[in-house]
TrEMBL record:
The gene is Phospho2. This is PHOP2 phosphatase. Substrate binds at D19, D99. Pfam families: Put_Phosphatase. Keywords: Hydrolase, Magnesium, Metal-binding. It comes from Oxyruncus cristatus (sharpbill).
Length: 241
């Protein structure tokens, strides 16, 4: 009996957007208008590539970025939740599927000593170049019309589950914890026995309730959370069953 917990990262594990937080490193803590307005819908990763190039051009070094990123607060109750999952790893497999990048997520999880809680992290690959610039690439190519060009979270989840099945691992239930519009595609892939946990007041919750109003509700159960304490309460019930 094993449960799979799937987490988004920005505004879910941390209470901010890691990509916009890095702007605190920019001169005067802001981006020039031309750069700020250059983001095209569905092409966020390319936009962040330009942001990182701008930071590099302005002499922002890896140490400063790391120092800035590790000040991002975790969402209310999240530290307790991740501690609880860590203590019950025999019951929970735990993955992150995020539109952030490997460098940011790695820094933040390691600084708080939570990297051991997660079995795998699926996000845009990032690295520092020989000249000290942070670079980022799309996670994969896909054909999903609903998702941004760089990442379809449904495809990531499906491929992970297929790989686990090949290893002889299947899950009693999938619990999907997220907040954003790009979390809807994987939520719509969940089955009747699974549960989606959208963050209260965020895009995912609004999109799920819009679907219900349009009489095409998601198949899985839905439980809204505002603090990660709500998620712990649910997982404790799950374990008791």
């Amino acid at each position: 009996m094993k449960f799979l917990l799937v987490f988004d990262f920005d505004h879910t594990i941390i209470d901010e957007n890691s990509d916009t937080w890095i702007v605190k490193c920019a001169p005067e803590r802001k981006l020039p208008n031309g750069l700020r307005n250059s983001n095209q819908p569905g092409h966020w990763t390319e936009y962040m590539g330009r942001v990182f190039a701008y930071l590099g051009d302005n002499g922002v070094k890896e140490e400063e970025m790391k120092r800035t990123m590790t000040t991002i607060p975790f969402t209310a109750g999240m530290v307790d939740l991740l501690g609880f999952i860590g203590e019950n790893k025999e019951l929970f497999d735990c993955i992150i599927v995020s539109d952030s990048n490997t460098v940011f997520i790695d820094w933040i999880l390691k600084a708080a000593d939570f990297h051991e809680v997660f079995d795998e992290v699926f996000t845009n690959p990032a690295a520092f170049s020989s000249t000290g610039y942070l670079t980022v690439q799309n996670f994969h190519a896909h054909h999903c019309k609903k998702c941004p060009k760089n990442l379809c979270k449904r495809q990531v989840l499906k491929e992970f589950l297929d790989k686990q099945l090949e290893r002889g691992v299947s899950y009693t239930q999938i619990v999907y914890i997220g907040d954003g519009g790009n979390d809807l595609c994987p939520v719509m892939f969940l089955k009747k026995n699974d549960i989606a946990m959208p963050r209260q007041g965020y895009t995912l919750e609004k999109k799920i309730s819009q679907l219900a109003q349009d009489l095409s509700p998601v198949q899985c159960s839905v439980l809204v959370w505002s603090s990660a304490a709500d998620i712990i309460a649910y997982l404790k019930l799950l374990i008791k069953e």
